[in-house]
Design a protein that fits this description.
There is one protein chain. The protein is of the alpha/beta class. Strands 6-7-8-3-9-10 form a six-stranded mixed beta sheet, sandwiched between helices. Helix 5 packs parallel to helix 6. It folds into two domains: 235 residues, 3-Layer(aba) Sandwich (Rossmann fold); 85 residues, Alpha-Beta Plaits, CATH 3.30.70. The chain is 33% helix and 30% strand.
């Protein structure tokens, strides 16, 4: 379990302090894939550097399996960092080394014997599907292949935690999907906990179990990805259902409701049940259904006669839907 508590990072500048993180609380269960989603400048990369202690937080704590990394130094900090692998946006491979040499680098730095290094490199290159590129150099590889080498290198020292900073933002959509599938395989087969920093909602909905949404250095929302997608007003929900972004006014005598469905509720004819129960007019203004991490998520914006709002809301909520008045 990763437990981040009251994390704060302040950068002093000649013109005043810049607060990059302001009281961030995030939990990542062991063996899960967690996303940290936010726009540029939200504090995502700062958060990742603080988790790995590449950048020390101004205050707060970062606990990994109960050990507070923010209180470590010297040999203890180095040992803790060996349990954390990093995958970078720009790959950060050494051009002068072959694929095998890049993957072996963490093992060399850790003092692993040559024979054990070679066996581990072969194992990892098979895992990421690059056994035939062992003697190639980074310049001879595609972007996706280079990122696979980056993943293999990050796994070399058998970390418990993998931190990925915009690991797919430099890749085309098809290559992104293949790298995300690899990360999911790493999680499921090796049991490695993964934290993905990204500004891409598709990354979160494709591979993450949970997510935290950062806005201006604070957590705006967090929880299971499907629940965030079904919650109106979150960056994830508004991104999946952009047509519901602005409130539509239905006119005199009618109210506008946002209705969110998750899981089994998305497959039930709840709107029909509400219409039958109220004997009123219900007009669909906008809506959509998406599949997020295996769960169906639906959102509708409907106009309902004001005299029927109370009963319609009751029927929908009884059936498991979330209902919020828009206008």
């Amino acid at each position: 379990m990763i437990s981040i508590r009251e994390l704060r990072k302040v950068y002093p500048t000649p013109t005043g302090d810049v607060v990059a993180l302001d009281g961030v609380d995030i939990d990542v269960p062991t063996g899960r894939v967690a996303g940290v989603l936010g726009r540029s400048g939200a504090g995502k990369s700062t958060l990742l550097r603080c988790v790995s202690l590449l950048d020390r937080p101004t205050s707060g704590s970062v606990l990994v399996d109960g050990a507070d990394l923010s209180g470590l130094s010297g040999a203890d900090l180095l040992a803790a960092r060996r349990r954390i692998g990093n995958v970078f946006q720009r790959f950060n491979l050494l051009d002068s080394r072959t694929v095998a040499g890049n993957v072996a680098l963490p093992l060399e730095l850790a003092g692993e014997p040559r024979s054990r290094r070679a066996a581990r490199v072969d194992e990892l290159l098979e895992l990421v599907g690059l056994s035939d590129k062992k003697s190639s150099y980074p310049a001879q590889l595609s972007g996706g292949q280079q990122q696979r080498v980056g993943v293999a290198r990050a796994l070399a020292a058998r970390p418990d935690l993998l931190l990925c900073d915009e690991a797919t933002s430099a890749l085309d959509p098809e290559t992104t999907r293949s790298v995300l599938a690899l990360l999911r395989r790493v999680n499921e087969e090796l049991g490695v906990t993964i934290v993905l920093i990204t500004h891409e909602m598709d990354v979160v909905t494709t591979v993450c179990d949970t997510a935290a949404i950062l806005e201006k250095g604070t957590v705006a929302a967090s929880g299971p990805v499907a629940e965030l997608a079904a919650t109106p007003g979150t960056m994830l929900s508004d991104g999946l259902f952009p047509q519901l972004g602005a409130a539509d006014v239905a006119g005199d005598g009618r109210a506008v409701l946002d209705v969110s469905f998750l899981g089994d509720a998305a497959d039930r004819p709840l709107l029909s049940e509400a219409i039958r129960a109220t004997d009123g007019d219900v007009t669909i203004l906008a809506g959509g259904v998406e599949t997020v991490r295996g769960s169906r998520v639906g959102r509708l914006r409907v106009a309902v006669d004001t005299t029927a709002v109370s009963e319609a809301t009751k029927v929908l909520r009884t059936g498991g839907a979330r209902v919020e008045a828009v206008a």
